[in-house]
Design a protein that fits this description.
Helix 7 packs across helix 8, helix 10 (603-612) packs antiparallel against helix 11 and helix 20 (780-794) packs antiparallel against helix 21 (798-809). Helix content is 41%, strand content 20%. By secondary structure, the chain is an alpha+beta fold. Among the domains are: 10-39 and 337-480, Neutral Protease, domain 2 (Orthogonal Bundle); 486-600, Aminopeptidase N, middle-beta domain (Immunoglobulin-like), CATH 2.60.40; 797-928, Peptidase M1, alanyl aminopeptidase, C-terminal domain (Zincin-like fold), CATH 1.25.50.
Length: 928
């Protein structure tokens, strides 16, 4: 899924002065915080084995634990974490202990005052799953009981050192009424299953691999399973996907994705499935996407259930990626885990990188070399678009933090884009610097050194460095510094000397918490920057647009096409020799570093890159720069044409270029998101969200109208009525087809007939939900009938009804009054199940985060809607509420009246006396 050591690591010693200054300043700022990286000390006891017995009932579950402990240090007292549980009894080596004499207990801890060097501690507790709406710890979901223990949920069941560096082997016994809970699952291998008296039954599970408490899981319920046995690593392995009985037909793709993940991890990294079985369980009540509990992954149904009639291509893609992600955690997170929660990116950034690579390989499997390259480029574009839209914004806001923060108030608030997606980009930079073989050597050494232990980000970096005999000390700064660096580039061509000089400057000003640190010194980062130079004219055998051979001054070998530059200074110059003609540079190819590039490209330069760049990612990025420049210009001059004739000609050539895959063309003609454009504007001026929305809409209208005949041709070619199959190529065709239909609807009212026909005749959810969305936004009369039909068709499909809610909440083409009425009606709808996180995200989050035109009304109605629901949700589920709270963290970037109205809404939430710690931290940092 997604504290502490006394001795400094070698890297920490190398920068003691800098690091100590940062920690001192942050500690001074976080006076109310008791979670500081600098406070880390090891837990003073080993917990060698943990035995648990759960007597399960929704109304009252009792938990009996036996902890086999041994003292590590001189500490006499043992402190165990616990909250929202009832303590029944405590004993040591079968002798009952006396409250307030042998131990004391408060709302969050059980302290055992004096313990021997070793012994067996037994604790009996009780909890009430049926009233646990936080979905942390043991909770009810429908007819089932399930757990979520990351980050600090285990303490809601029993007292324990609930921290990731306490590793123990677990034996778990589950007892329950067999009729009520016929399926009883926990981590590891099944040891025994049998019936007991009075209609009960029990199962016993053993996990032979030491793990921290956050990886514990149990499931009790009325579930059906899809099962397959595979031969893997010379052994038979049982794979099981548990879902509601009526959902079994929708579980096959998750099973196939699990098998593909197992095969990929063995092939790519020689990492085997290490248990006798691997289980996946799906529930609709889940705050996260999924959880990697050892051998028993618990998923949100959204990332397990996939069938053509109920899931879109994006859903299929996400199921594959998330199944892969959680399986890959078996080694990068479970076998080697985090020493403390500050190291969260150690497992999450690394595993996101691994699932991105897995998905890329899956998309490219079986394709020609050219088609595979296109598929990989589309995946890279998806990932970078996500990073730029959400993580770059996070880096520029009040929650900005390094991928390894040095302080936090509430750990649940640090499951962020920075930890995950930026963390993945940092891991990717290791491979860029070391090459795939070098990265593999580093991974092998990492597992050799640390299997079965809890380690730090520095330990991972040390394995990479030592395996390749390189110094990566400076690279470690990526873990300590927040913000998105800007790399400013100047290029100069000397025709007489046949040299091209690139002058680079990196800048990463203070952001977020760093703004409170007046004396903070941010040091240069080690940035791997891939570059290419394109010939601007024919020169000898080199044709216009070809990649030039690149000789770096002082080196004898030429790079073919792309040259990796190792950019390590605040300012640095690179001289490329034997350049026969003036080039156009292609910078940060494949997005080799998560930075903003500033180069003074002319409109003609960007047009040239659009036509010729051989790096598919940068060709797409040139289109994004063209769109961005045109939209921002149109905001300043709304009456002018959005695009020039030259730009439209080039875009037209690309739209008709059948050598470019449909998936890639769909990406090329997708405008930058409102959120990404908002970031860029707010760097230089106050943001008017309505002006941005209007300018972006005018840009889309221009593309729709100018290329209307091309959209018609594409739609007719791609709307071929072929039976649905999920492959990357087929999904790309549907993406371009539905983009064409959307653009036709924008340009021509007569398209309503095509939209209705697609809705009625399609065999898949991708095309049906696309038609419904287009109708809702463009053809309200038809939409009324289609919405009613859609609901009737899928009333029993919870995930599909989520889409029904989301399509209506995202409608930006009606009046403010109309969307207010729609939201009011939907909130009262019988299908709006308020506690369910998926339903909350479908309606409330979609409106607040994906409908900027209506959310940013000048009367503040959208902000009032946000405040009401942040407070309402917070009463039951603080984790979900805190994520909604972040919708307003960039309020300072906005022009009036938005800024004052947003501030007022934030203050209204802040004044609530019952606010959870999760939300209070977000609101407090937003208000400063």
């Amino acid at each position: 899924m997604r504290t502490y050591r006394l001795q400094l690591s070698p890297y920490e010693k190398a920068i003691t002065g800098f690091f100590t200054t940062v920690e001192r300043l942050i500690e001074r700022h976080f006076v109310s915080t008791n979670h500081l990286l600098s406070d880390y000390t090891p837990y003073p006891f080993h917990i060698h084995t943990t035995e648990l017995v759960f007597d399960l009932s929704p109304e009252r579950t009792t938990v009996t634990s036996w902890l086999d402990f041994e003292r590590k240090t001189g500490a006499q007292a043992m402190v165990l974490d616990g909250e929202h549980i009832e303590l029944i009894a405590v004993s040591l080596d079968e002798v009952a202990l006396i409250a307030d004499v042998d131990y004391t207990v408060n709302a969050t801890q059980l302290t055992l005052h004096t313990l021997p060097e070793s012994g067996v501690l037994s604790i009996i507790t009780a909890c009430t799953p049926s009233t646990n709406t936080s979905l942390s710890g043991l909770f009810t979901t429908g007819a089932h009981l399930m757990t979520q223990c990351e980050a600090e949920g285990f303490r809601r069941m029993t007292y324990f050192p609930d921290r990731p560096d306490v590793l123990s082997t677990y034996t778990v016994t589950l007892l329950a009424d067999k009729a009520q809970f016929p399926v009883l699952l926990s981590n590891g291998n099944l040891v025994e299953a049998r019936e007991v008296d009075n209609g009960g039954h029990m199962t016993i599970w053993n996990d032979p691999f030491p793990k921290p408490s956050y990886l514990f899981a149990l499931v009790a319920g009325q579930l059906a399973s899809l099962e397959e046995t595979i031969e893997h690593d010379g052994q038979s392995k049982l794979l099981q996907v548990y879902v509601e009985a009526h959902d079994v037909p929708k579980a096959q793709f998750a099973m196939d994705s699990l098998k593909a993940s197992i095969h990929w991890d063995k092939k790519r990294y020689n990492l085997p499935l290490d248990l006798e079985r691997f289980m996946i369980v799906a529930t609709s009540d889940f705050n996260m996407g999924a959880m990697e509990n050892k051998g028993l992954n618990i998923f949100n149904t959204k990332f397990v259930l996939a069938h053509p009639d109920t899931a879109t291509d994006v859903d299929f893609e996400n199921v594959e990626a998330v199944v892969g992600h959680e399986y890959f955690h078996n080694w990068t997170g479970n076998r080697v885990t985090c020493r403390d929660w500050f190291q969260l990116s150690l497992k999450e950034g690394l595993t996101v990188y691994r699932d991105q690579e897995f998905s890329s390989d899956q998309l490219a499997e079986g394709l020609s070399e050219k088609a595979a390259a296109s598929a990989r480029a589309v995946k890279r574009i998806d990932d970078v678009s996500n990073l730029r839209t959400a993580q770059f914004a996070e880096d520029a806001g009040p929650m900005a933090h390094p991928i390894r923060p040095v302080a936090y108030e509430e750990i649940n608030n640090f499951y962020t884009m920075t930890v995950y997606e930026k963390g993945a980009e940092v891991v990717r930079m290791y491979e860029t610097l070391l090459g795939r073989d070098g990265f593999r050597k580093g991974m092998d050494l990492y597992f050799e050194r640390h299997d079965g232990t809890a380690v730090t980000c520095d330990d991972f970096r040390a394995a990479m460095a030592d395996a390749n005999a390189v110094d990566l000390t400076q690279f470690g700064r990526w873990y300590e510094q927040a913000g998105t660096p800007t790399v400013s580039v100047n290029g100069t061509y000397d025709a007489a000397a046949r040299t091209y000089t690139l002058s680079l400057t990196q800048n990463n000003p203070a952001v977020g918490i760093e703004l409170q640190q007046a004396s903070l010194l941010k040091l240069p980062l080690h940035i791997p920057l891939n570059i290419g130079l394109l010939a601007s004219s024919n020169c000898g055998s080199i044709q216009v647009g070809d990649d030039l051979p690149l000789y770096l001054a002082g080196q004898t070998d030429a790079a073919t096409g792309t040259l990796p530059l190792s950019f390590t200074e605040a300012s640095q110059t690179f001289v490329l020799t034997d350049i026969p003609c003036a080039p156009v540079p292609s910078l940060n190819r494949q997005f080799s570093a998560p930075v903003l590039i500033h180069f003074n490209y002319s409109d003609d330069d960007l047009n040239f890159l659009l036509q010729h760049d051989n790096d598919a990612f940068n060709r797409w990025d040139a289109a994004q720069q063209v769109y961005t420049r045109c939209i921002l210009n149109n905001m300043r001059n709304p009456d002018a044409a959005v695009f020039s004739p030259t730009q439209l000609n080039t875009l037209g050539e690309l739209l008709h270029n059948d050598d470019l895959s449909p998936a890639y063309r769909a990406q090329l003609f997708t405008l930058p998101s409102h959120a990404f454009l908002a970031q860029l504007i707010s760097r230089v001026q106050a943001l008017d969200p309505q002006a941005l929305h209007a300018a972006r809409q005018r840009a889309n209208d221009a593309l729709a109208t100018h290329f209307e005949s091309a959209w018609q041709l594409l739609y007719s070619q791609l709307n071929n009525n072929q039976a649905y199959v999920y492959t990357g190529a087929a999904a790309g065709q549907r993406a371009l087809k539905n983009l064409a239909l959307h653009q036709l609807a924008t340009a021509n009212d007569d398209t309503a007939v095509l939209v209705q026909n697609q809705y009625n005749t399609t065999d898949n959810m991708t095309d049906r939900i696309a038609a419904l969305s287009i109708a809702v936004n463009h053809f309200p009369a038809a939409a009324t009938t289609m919405l009613a039909d859609f609901y009737q068709r899928y009333a029993n499909e919870a995930l599909v009804i989520d889409k029904w809610f989301a399509v209506q909440a995202a409608n930006s083409h009606v009046s403010h009054n109309a969307i207010a009425q729609t939201l009011n009606d939907l909130l009262k709808h019988p299908a709006f199940i308020k506690p369910n996180p998926n339903r909350l995200r479908a309606l409330i989050f979609t409106f607040c985060n994906a409908n900027p035109h209506h959310f940013h009304q000048t009367n503040g109605a959208g902000y009032d809607f946000w405040a009401k629901h942040v407070l309402d949700i917070d009463q039951k589920n603080p984790q979900v509420s805190s994520r909604l709270a972040r919708s307003m963290e960039h309020w300072r970037d906005y022009a009036e009246p938005h800024r004052s109205l947003m501030q007022a809404a934030l203050k209204k939430v802040a004044e609530n006396q019952t606010l959870s710690q999760d939300v209070r931290e977000i609101i407090g940092k937003a208000l400063g």
